[in-house]
Amino acid sequence: MNKRNRLAFICTIAAVCTLFTTSAWAASANDKKTTVRQPVKTVQAKSSSASKKTTTAAKPVEESTDTVRIGIREGQGRVSLTSPQGLGIYRGESLWKKSAANVPVTVTLSGTDLAVNGTASKGSLRVRPLGKDGVVKITDGYTYRGDMELMKSPGRWGITVVNVLPVEQYLYGVVGKEMSPSWSEEALKAQAVAARTYAIAHKRRFSQRGFDLTDDTSSQVYAGVGGESPAVIKAVNATKGEILTYQGKPIDAFFFSTAGGWTENSENVWGTYIPYLRGVSDTSNKMPGYRWSVTTTPEKMETKLAAAGKGVGQIKSITLSPLAKRPMTEADRGVSGRVQSMVIHGTKGNVTVKGLAFQSIFGLRSTLFDFYSGKGTAPDPDTGKAVRKRDFTVKAGQPLTIYGFGWGHGLGMSQYGAYQMAQEHAGERDYYRKILTHYYTGTEIKKLY
């Protein structure tokens, strides 16, 4: 996932809700599920020698820079855990109880306290495997490396379960869920660095809930040991500790499925200038999702607009600069050609529709779209030929095609673009570095630990 500097990010709720950050692999493997990741305040890189503080009843453990806390469950009344190596249950740093191999330990909520197999205990608990390199399994869920911390859910009823583990081991279970493990090594390395940067920059984002990151698309998809593969582990290990920085600080390393020829400037998506999120050329024309189209009718479009509170009666025309060769400079489109806004004219008046709103209303893959009437193949903007005028006439009863390029919000690294770049430079050592610095303008790759 994802995406982390807060350089005065100001987003409206509506914009965030319609912001699609689609992982290439998650999109293809999980019914094209979209990922929503939000920018956060940057954390300054710290030394990995930072010592760990012990757990207290008042707050969770403060982890070092190379450790991360992942929220696995919240608001649970009962949680059962087990391990092939047996489990140790700790209060603070002191071993309190043990369970034998493959024997479940059940933690329940007893008032505001936790109870282990019926015995109450004050404060949070740590559960860890007794054997070296062991794992902990939630009996109705995934298996995980590292420790499990259990606590009363802050500010709500129930138990919160947090997986506490080294960042590198966390990435083992992330990279293969955000990008296909079958992809080339250099693409996987690029994804590993982007995902690591995201994790470091977003530490403590959910601290009020007791953890750093979620295990779903609100942060980065994480499946524990079940998300691991040899190729992913190799890519993570090869880039150990490396993160992307701008002026010495971790960046918001956003990524998405495919750019459709050009990525976008941050101000054209969020309204705020971010120096390393600049529109750049994208080589993904041989990849799935590069081109797409949706055929509808003016009448269906009228109905959907009306349902969204943007009805204009019978649609007569649409004012929007035609999609042309990128980079573009028209005010109603971004540098990539992504639609900023357009005006729809109808028998009952006119309405201005933002590109993100139109994308949401019609379920489009991106805001990089245009229109044409009739049958045939959609125009190719990269030919440089004008295929229509700025005022596009809509004819009643005639098929209307919305055609477009790319999948996702268009900021940062295009995953399919990274894949195609790696394929076209097969055999070039450490090419992942060129991929990353291409998509994240003016950044440096630094080793954090």
UniProtKB/TrEMBL annotation:
Listed Low complexity bias regions: 45-59
Q: Which residues form the Sporulation stage II protein D amidase enhancer LytB N-terminal domain?
A: 158-246
Q: In the record, which residues are listed under signal peptide?
A: 1-26
| Annotated spans, Disordered | 44-66
- Keywords from the UniProt entry: Signal
The record's annotation in PANTHER family points to: AMIDASE ENHANCER (PTHR30032:SF4), N-ACETYLMURAMOYL-L-ALANINE AMIDASE-RELATED (PTHR30032)
Q: Which NCBIfam families match?
A: SpoIID_LytB (TIGR02669)
Tell me the protein's name: SpoIID/LytB domain-containing protein
> Which species is this record about?
Megasphaera massiliensis
The uppermost taxa in this organism's lineage are: Bacteria, Bacillati, Bacillota, Negativicutes, Veillonellales
